[in-house]
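Protocol step 4 of 6: structure prediction from sequence.
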Amino acid sequence: MEASPAAAAESCSPVDILTDGDWGQLTRPTEEYLSRLSEESTELFRLTNGEQLAITPSSVTFLNLFEDRVEQRILALLNPQDHKTVVAVYLGQGWCSVDQALRTSNRERQELVQVQSVGERIVLFLLNHVICGSSELPANVFPFRDHPVNEFAKIFWKDQEAAGFYTVKLKASLCSTHTSQCYQLPVLDTIFVRERHRGRGLGLEMLEDFCGLFPDGEEELGISRPISAAMYRVCHRYLQSRPEDQTRLWEVEAPGDWSQRENVWLLIQMGIIPSADPSAHPGSS
């Protein structure tokens, strides 16, 4: 039996089929499917290049979506030549290639959409863990940490596919599950644009959206340290057009008290910025 990604191209996207917050709609069918899978299985998954991969218990693994919620996970099919590479995910109704999982059949899903449903959480995980974390991660850059289950995030949808995302550590939220320290200001924690969508202004739109979440001038805003060279260029363009925010935007370390902040505009004006190499960070825009 063959599991073809093309056969379900219009329906396998998690944002189209997992539209609410009920994780049971994913976990129950996945557990039932796995209980039927055996090493003698004849099920195959066809890649876009025509190659067929056998789907057996030894070729699949669970991926935990959240560090603090081990029961919320997805079943992944691994490349037999590279067990770090995820080629497909099981979404309760069948297998879906990573590329198809990052698409939507809904033409109205455009621009920035806040992450709320189970399907959107899966897309955020795939962008962060699979795309940014492996296939589009420069060798000299550490991957982003896994996002907590209730992390505030928005996904940028462009041409019916997930083109990027950003996440926010809200003021008074815990810095981590291992500390009682809380963030003292809202912080733009991670921001990422996929390679084929860079150079189109998406990073600037996401920074503008983040700043627009909070009333102008009401409170200071942070960006997690270290800021990449590409993100500094985005900040430069934004602050040139919004001089009222030049005293408001700070590069911060958690939890962001005054001893852990440096003004972004001042750093730019003083020339204290990283290398101008646009590949220096996965958040290139």
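Step 5 (inspection) to follow. Residues 1-101 form one domain.
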